[in-house]
Structure to design on (295 residues):
């Protein structure tokens, strides 16, 4: 495993509730995107212009949307390293109400393993390589260099916070930052249900039309496959959801007309596997899409 390396640490005392803005500016100066938290350790809610997804952003900000709201109303997606934004008039009201500061680990190239109790800490000490640690109210944050998809409850008392998530800033911590180990990445991999038979990778057969779509030209089908492959290939986050959405789009247009062949399905699966999906995940996504459409 690559030897742990040091990074520039955020110096200074533990942040006090009276100085969240200064803490955020200190974090931003080290390349860590920061945002304010209100009472209850939660981000500020959407402003009226962004309420109910009116701004075009994604509900609950599971992925960043096109919204360019100048305020701090999109949770982790609003976190920034720009001091001009942090001190802007649009953020002033939030800082007046803020009681603590959070940061976006994925935006800083980090992953936080949030250990919520003593049992989780004991597990980490036996299983994970030593790294930067920060005490929390009930447990510890173990911080690694590297990013991954965030997941909650990967095991009892353990959450993973990295991309599309935020972690509360509780001080610089102690220890040397280590590289994100495979032992953490594998926590997010779900084991297949043992009682469920493995679905077939190819479940759509060519119809009586000899593979041609009866209501469109073959070129229309080809464009659809190319667009689905490009959609999967260009995805940078939410790979599972993107693959499922691409499969759903193809099946909604061609799942009933008998034009899809094993070759078409194999092209879609190959694109998904190139993004890190397993064959089993591809087959599950395909089956789920067919079930959703009643195929």
């Amino acid at each position: 495993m690559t030897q742990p390396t040091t990074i520039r640490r955020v110096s200074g005392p533990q942040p006090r509730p009276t100085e969240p803005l200064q803490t955020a500016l200190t974090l931003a100066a080290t390349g860590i995107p920061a945002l304010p938290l209100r009472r209850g350790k939660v981000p500020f809610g959407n402003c009226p212009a962004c309420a109910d997804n009116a701004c075009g952003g994604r509900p609950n900000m599971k992925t960043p949307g096109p919204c360019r709201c100048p305020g701090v109303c999109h949770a982790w997606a609003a976190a920034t390293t720009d001091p001009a934004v942090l001190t802007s008039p649009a953020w002033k009201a939030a800082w007046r109400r803020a009681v603590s500061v959070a940061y976006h680990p994925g935006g800083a190239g980090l992953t936080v393993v949030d250990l919520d109790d003593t049992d989780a800490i004991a597990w980490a000490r036996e299983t994970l390589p030593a790294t930067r640690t920060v005490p929390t109210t009930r447990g510890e944050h173990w911080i690694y260099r590297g990013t991954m998809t965030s997941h909650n409850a990967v095991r009892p008392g353990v959450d993973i916070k990295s991309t599309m998530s935020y972690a509360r800033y509780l001080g610089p911590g102690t220890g040397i930052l280590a590289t994100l180990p495979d032992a953490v990445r594998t926590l997010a991999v779900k084991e297949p249900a043992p009682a469920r038979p493995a679905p077939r990778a190819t479940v759509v057969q060519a119809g009586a039309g000899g593979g041609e779509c009866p209501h469109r030209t073959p070129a229309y089908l080809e464009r659809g496959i190319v667009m689905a492959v490009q959609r999967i290939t260009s995805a940078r986050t939410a790979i599972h959801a993107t693959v499922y959405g691409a499969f759903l789009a193809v099946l909604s247009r061609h799942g009933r007309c008998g034009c899809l062949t094993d070759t078409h399905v194999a092209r879609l699966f190959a694109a998904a596997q190139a993004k890190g999906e397993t064959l089993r995940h591809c087959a599950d996504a395909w089956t789920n899409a067919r079930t959703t459409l009643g195929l």
